[in-house]
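OP here, attaching both records as promised.
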Amino acid sequence: MVQHSKPTKILAYVCALILLPAFFAVPILIANFAFTSEIHNSDITDTLFLGAVATLVLYHCIKYCYLLLRFLKTLSHKLDFDDKGITLWQKNSTEFYPWETLFLSKAYDSCQMYSVVDSNKRHLISIWEYADRYNEFRAMAIQKIGH
């Protein structure tokens, strides 16, 4: 069974308490710095460079905030897997998904996370690499769907 242990869940919530405010504050601070009077009066290339940096940071903050919130939403879900596919436990329901329907799943190495997505583009679960049996599951996913 692939699941997040209680200590891992606590760690995930602590990380969220630290990271979520940072994902909102950092782009605001960079934009504020980019448009202060000292920088604003400088060369146009400096302003364009800081604007590009602020845009890039904002993009990554939005992306990682989205991935973190999606992960937290499925943190209590569990899955089991075999040669045929995965069985997903969500609260009181259980569903089976054949490996062939999970080809849209994706690894986010920078987040140490794997998101399981079905052929209808529905996010089923995100699994942190600290989950029980994560490495076995990833090896099977690589074998069955190629990533």
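Record two, same layout:
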Amino acid sequence: MKVILAIIFSLLAQTLEAQHVFSVKGNKTYLDDTVFHDIGLRCSNALISDQAVDSLIRHLDEYQSYGLNTISVYLLGSRYSNIYGYNLDGTLNPVYQQRLEKIIEACDRRKMVVLVGTLYWGSGQHGRSNEYYAAWGQEEVNAAMRNTVQWLTDKGYRNVFIDPDNEGMAERAASFNIGEMICQGKKINPDLSIAYNGKGYPPPCADLSIHFANQIEQLPYIETEGTPSQYWGDYSKEVGLNKYINVGIYTEGKKAQQLVRTQELLDQEHGYLLASTWLQNVPPRFDLGGDGTACDPGIRWWCEFIRDRYKNANQ
């Protein structure tokens, strides 16, 4: 009898609804029916290892102490990583699924939101190759979306929203119909918010615009990959090498640009997630580091700006 009860309680715990609910109403985002402005960090390579997941979770309390409330994680890893979050039939790979579970649940306990990224096309593997998923067509990406939404729904995770296609890379490179992909997800669970991240106007079934997508009056907008101008280029990547340069290092000009753009969007009541080589390098590191100089690289300087200007206003 004790064994049976333990199994029942375990199953109930697995399907227990999340405590906190992210939603979109009109052109605003909400958490638990209160207007919510996403401020946080792009942690796109977090699923690369158990060690990376554990490190990220260990630092969530520190993030929160600065007023950060959102992180982004991708099931296909970002540049220079090898993260295969989906099997070839579009089902979730259980290794990466379990890692993502830990992050979502840890964030939920802290009243934090997770952007769950599905496709990161052409950069999920070394050398910007997409050979592992070369046979994928529209049905496979639709299946990946359906399976992701179904899994999030079955687990009761509501402190989440989805980026179906990082920077519209799959839409451009493989001609996938991301609008169709989004609509497939909305059919599974119309209450789970799905964003559009391609260049241009979001399709009618999208709930919000993020990063590359056009800002429109009818939908919320979140800059989910905030950097200074010309950051992802010669400054951070060296041609022919599968690693970043100037990791966590910012010139005074780039710092100033970062803060101006952050303030501009947050003061307009949009959301803002910082992206940085400090976070995205492989293996990723999730401590905040220092003042962004060569002697003390990191992103703490930006977090201090958020703490001093926005923490109290967003609580």
